[in-house]
Design goal:
Elements (H helix, E strand, L loop, with lengths): L2 H10 L2 H12 L4 E3 H8 L3 H13 L3 E6 L2 E6 L4 H8 L10 H12 L5 H16 L6 H21 L7 E6 L5 H13 L4 E6 L8 H8 L15 H6 L2 E5 L12 E4 L10 H24 L7
Parallel strand pairs: 4-5, 4-6, 6-7
Antiparallel strand pairs: 1-3, 2-3
Length: about 300
């Protein structure tokens, strides 16, 4: 625990200081005067001033003289910490679906109908909302863009010679992310790689990120995504990992099932073993794709 957190906990450990901070956060403009606080708290002004001095020293509040008055507010750097310790819910972020659709229209408008883009955006937002995903707006954009890209890729088959691989596991937070990260790393853009989950969670597990980083592989901006029809249709190879028959079957698509240990809840040492098993399988897959002359290695 850092010094700032210690200070906040110490300050909030006193019920009077916690009440002072609560009144600050409830104030319309987020600032208060000591005299008004004393009235609301039913305390003498010197007592409130003493508590305020402690909060100032701990870096929890800031002081702003205006004429003869001195206003106090929660320090910007301490706002999130104070809200968390007070149990104050964060303000919900808004998601501008119209703007997201318009931006995607600029990218895909020549290949996808505007109404379909709006439908994909709305559906992507609904699916991610169901998983309580953080960063909902940016992830909605990324997920919708990935789906639209898959949609256009599926319509381009078989003329497109770039092979496409889809990795699917249950939560899209472990095995599929390991496999996708390694294949992207090894193929260098010569293979289109996507991932999905039959029941996705909110974030890629930290042990997965660490296990990949140890071998020089970055997870980038990847996050768990629901399995969609577009992703399956766009794939030349669909590789499932413990998600049963969640994937629809389409002619011309190769389906493989890799029996792998689930890394959920496993220590990093165990995840490394799963990573190395996946690494071996991915290298074999890439060799097969290259031998089929679907990857340009020049």
């Amino acid at each position: 625990m850092d010094a700032g957190t210690d200070a906040a906990l110490t300050s909030l450990g006193d019920p009077t200081r916690a009440r002072i901070l609560s009144l600050m956060r409830a104030s319309p403009d987020g600032r208060v005067l000591v005299g008004r606080l004393a009235t609301e708290l039913g305390l003498r002004q010197p007592t409130v001033s003493h508590h305020m001095k402690t909060l100032l020293a701990d870096g929890i509040v800031s002081r702003e003289p205006v004429g003869r008055q001195v206003w106090y507010s929660v320090a910007p750097d301490a706002a999130d910490r104070v809200d968390a310790l007070l149990g104050r819910p964060r303000e919900a972020a808004s998601v501008d679906l119209d703007r997201i659709a318009a931006d995607l229209q600029a990218r895909f408008g020549e290949r996808v109908d505007a109404d379909q883009i709006r439908e994909v955006v709305a559906d992507s937002h609904a699916r991610l909302s169901a998983t309580d995903a953080p960063l909902l707006a940016s992830r909605t954009f990324s997920f919708a863009a990935s789906r639209l890209d898959a949609l256009t890729a599926a319509s381009a088959r078989p003329s497109d010679t770039t092979p496409s691989v889809l990795f699917v596991c249950v939560q899209n937070a472990g095995r599929s992310q390991l496999a996708a990260g390694i294949l992207r790393h090894l193929a260098g853009g010569a293979v289109s790689v996507r991932t999905a989950g039959s029941a996705p969670t909110t974030d890629v597990r930290s042990t997965i990120v660490t296990a990949l980083d140890e071998i020089g592989v970055s997870i980038g901006d990847e996050f768990p995504k629901p399995l969609t029809d577009e992703a399956v249709r766009a794939a030349d190879v669909v590789i499932t990992m413990g998600c049963g028959d969640a994937c629809p079957i389409y002619p011309g698509t190769r389906y493989l099932d890799w029996e792998l240990e689930d890394p959920v809840g496993k220590p990093l040492a165990a995840v490394r073993g799963i990573r190395d098993d996946i690494d071996r399988r991915v290298r074999e897959l890439l060799t097969e794709l290259r031998s089929a002359e679907k990857v340009n290695t020049s």
